Amino acid sequence: MVTENFPNLGKEKGIQVQKAQRAPSKKNPNRPTPRHIGIKLPKIKDKERILKSARDKQQVTYKGNPIRLSADLSTETLQARREWHEVIKVMKNKDPNPRLLYPARLSFKIEGQIKSFPDKKRLREYISTKPPLQEMLKGLL
């Protein structure tokens, strides 16, 4: 599908499909061919580029039939998730084992407890009581 509709994107070696799954039709589950195909890409940037190209082209086809692409996350959610990337990058070099929970919550383990933060303001308030975290994230918050 990528090479058929987006020849420039298809030539790049960085785009890889991590998982593809067919979902049966909700109206008629006995229909022989599923209607929806969910594709998980390993990088958010790849998904953004494909969706941007699809919006520019306005009609995407698969084997000659028009299809509709939709993102599983809104642009606001993608932006919120993107804001956590620098914090996660710094924390991965250290020990807290950070994770980005759905839709855009930062979670990490500290002192044997798992802490979760919906935004940077709450994280900033929390790290003000934890000097090692303050030192680690200095300049990011």
TrEMBL record:
<feature type="region of interest" description="Disordered">
    <location>
        <begin position="1"/>
        <end position="41"/>
    </location>
</feature>
<feature type="domain" description="L1 transposable element RRM">
    <location>
        <begin position="2"/>
        <end position="72"/>
    </location>
</feature>
<dbReference type="InterPro" id="IPR043636">
    <property type="entry name" value="L1_RRM_dom"/>
</dbReference>
<comment type="similarity">
    <text>Belongs to the transposase 22 family.</text>
</comment>
<protein>
    <submittedName>
        <fullName>Uncharacterized protein</fullName>
    </submittedName>
</protein>
<dbReference type="Pfam" id="PF02994">
    <property type="entry name" value="Transposase_22"/>
</dbReference>
<dbReference type="InterPro" id="IPR042566">
    <property type="entry name" value="L1_C"/>
</dbReference>
<dbReference type="InterPro" id="IPR004244">
    <property type="entry name" value="Transposase_22"/>
</dbReference>
<dbReference type="Pfam" id="PF17490">
    <property type="entry name" value="Tnp_22_dsRBD"/>
</dbReference>
<feature type="compositionally biased region" description="Basic residues">
    <location>
        <begin position="24"/>
        <end position="38"/>
    </location>
</feature>
<feature type="domain" description="L1 transposable element dsRBD-like">
    <location>
        <begin position="76"/>
        <end position="138"/>
    </location>
</feature>
<dbReference type="InterPro" id="IPR035300">
    <property type="entry name" value="L1_dsRBD"/>
</dbReference>
